Q: What sequence folds into this?
């Protein structure tokens, strides 16, 4: 999974029926400090994320493993809202 | 999912039988403003997109999750025509 | 899917039994004009392609969705021979 | 699979129910000598790894093939702790 | 599939039970002439490859389509030892 920040919403009227009722969010990939990286993804929201949220993004076939996304043509889903990333000094 | 713009059609007579009757469109990846990015994909159309359409593209195994593409050797499908991408100021 | 040009054949005697009898072709990724790009793939041929053919290449799990490739350890398959790519002026 | 070093832990309260009880670790991709590479992944731990561990990371649909991760929206899992990478002189 | 050269072995005691008894090999991606490319993969051996072998590497979900790798958390497998890559002059 990767980190992302939600930066917008995507509106589409004409779409596959399996996307009906799903919230499509534009996500910018970020690093663990929240600094923006180059790629972005449009992802379905499975955890009530909102704009500005710092989230965990699951992609590939795993993106269909939530109640909201199962059997839908969806390759990216927001699966968590990040509270904290705890980086410790690593002795090894 | 990613954004793309449809820029052409692909014609192929000799092909796998599971591609019969499917519209193959050449799609250029774009950003949320419609600016072209580097990659392109040939995708099957599931939403009556046409040339010039600003679309949502689903890829990987999820691309087989539409009525039109199920069980076919297809790794990219157009699943929506984008009306609008709404980017708000982010307070967080 | 992506475009590729077949540039050679791959010969392997010692291989997984599910690759037996499958033609392995070396494919160079190209753009829609046939200009070579950087990546290449070894793909199984499902459409009687030959060296020099301009082809459509399907990869990932979708590559197992042809009669020839099902249930085999194959991640790329040639699914069409391209006749033409039709790029129109786009007004939108 | 790739090599990675565990560099931190990820805390998330609001998340998909299938992530409950799973340890999310921040992993930096490394080469076989342990030198850091550019990408990182958030992965679920299936082998009691800890911070600083030099691990094997499995991604894609294969990441759901452990007892801990099956049927969950998880695209990366730590499947081994590396004891040693043995590089020999290659005569061929 | 891609070409790779086996450059080492990976030893791991603490690992997912579905990796037990599987030979983990460090593979460097190469081009069709055997020249090294940038990426590497840890792959399971399904064809009795050894160090220095010039091999075919299958990745993604297809990597679980051999007897040795099925149902295991494995995303890359060696599926053939390459005898020869035959590049012809292409007239088209």
A:
């Amino acid at each position: 999974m990767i980190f992302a920040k939600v930066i917008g919403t995507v509106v589409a009227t004409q779409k596959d029926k399996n996307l009906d009722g799903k919230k499509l969010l534009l996500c910018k990939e970020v690093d663990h400090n929240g600094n923006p990286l180059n790629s972005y993804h449009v992802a379905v929201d499975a955890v009530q994320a909102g704009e500005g949220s710092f989230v965990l993004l699951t992609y590939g076939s795993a993106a269909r493993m939530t109640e909201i996304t199962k059997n839908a043509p969806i390759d990216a889903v927001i699966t968590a809202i990040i509270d904290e990333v705890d980086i410790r000094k690593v002795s090894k």
Remarks:
- The radius of gyration of chain B is 14 Å.
- Chain B has one domain: 2-81.
